[in-house]
Amino acid sequence: MVEIKTDTSVDAMREAGRVVARALTAVREKAAVGVTLRELDEVARGVLREAGATSPFLHYHPNWAPIPFPAVICASVNDAIVHGIPTDYRLRDGDLVSIDCGAKLNGWVGDSAVSFTVGRAREQDTHLIATARAALEAGMAAAVVGNRIGDIAHAVGTVCRSAGYGIPDGFAGHGVGRTMHEGPDVPNEGRPGRGMKLRHGMVLAIEPMLIAGGGDEYRHAADGWTLATTDGSRAAHVEHTVAVTNGGPRVLTML
Ligand code: MG
Ligand code: MG
């Protein structure tokens, strides 16, 4: 089901999104060589708590997962694409980290992700992350009234493919509202002019996932949650929650 939000609801979602942005900013400031992923999760928990927000990630238990998700962020390092569990792993020089975070405030959800490097960045990682951001920007720019879901998918996919990167099969963005995952699916690749028409009041999470090696395959790591590349190459993941409005795309998960 696709829920069309009122302008008042979108304003409320903006506040939830702001909490997510604050959490991701704090996590990024904390991230450094030697810091554990669990410590990053603690930072995000603190921001959510202070804002009076809850986590849509914590205890989330889709039917394919062996255990409920135990944290408020996903922390996916290097060859991990998404859904990494924050462990006692200590960040190392040159690591590529993707952090996904959600917040629920006054009944509304925000969902966003960032990728960055720690310590001395490898040039190819910087390029991968820059391309992921460019794909997100292109996708958001296509989130306008009268366009279709396929236009967003096509915009995202074109940036990724032009740079020679892979796109994990079967993972997509989604509608966001009172729950984290709603209709419609927002694929990271698709045909322009196809799919559902975008209307004022639709709220979408657009989230490019890029695999440096160029293939689209992924595997589930031993923890049952983490999706990792099969070729061992690195991956990046960035995401914003965006409202489609008559005034153009409105990014809800910025500071
Ligand atoms: Mg997310
Ligand atoms: Mg999402």
Walkthrough of the structure:
By secondary structure, the chain is of the alpha+beta class. The chain has one domain: Creatinase/methionine aminopeptidase superfamily (Creatine Amidinohydrolase), CATH 3.90.230. It has four helices and 13 strands. The strands form four sheets. It has a five-stranded antiparallel sheet. It has a three-stranded antiparallel sheet with strand order 1-3-4. Helix 1 packs antiparallel against helix 2. The two termini are 29 Å apart. The protein binds magnesium ion (MG) (2 copies). The site of one magnesium ion has 5 residues, from strand 3 and strand 4.
Looking at the overall shape, the CATH architecture is Alpha-Beta Complex
Return Rg in Å. 17 Å
Using the alpha-carbon principal axes, give the shape: globular
The helix-strand sequence is: HHEEEEHHEEEEEEEEE
Number of domains: 1
Taking the alpha carbons of the first and last residues, their distance comes to 29 Å
- What is the number of E strands? 13
Instruction: Summarize model confidence as the mean pLDDT.
Output: 98
Structural class: alpha+beta
Distinct ligands: magnesium ion
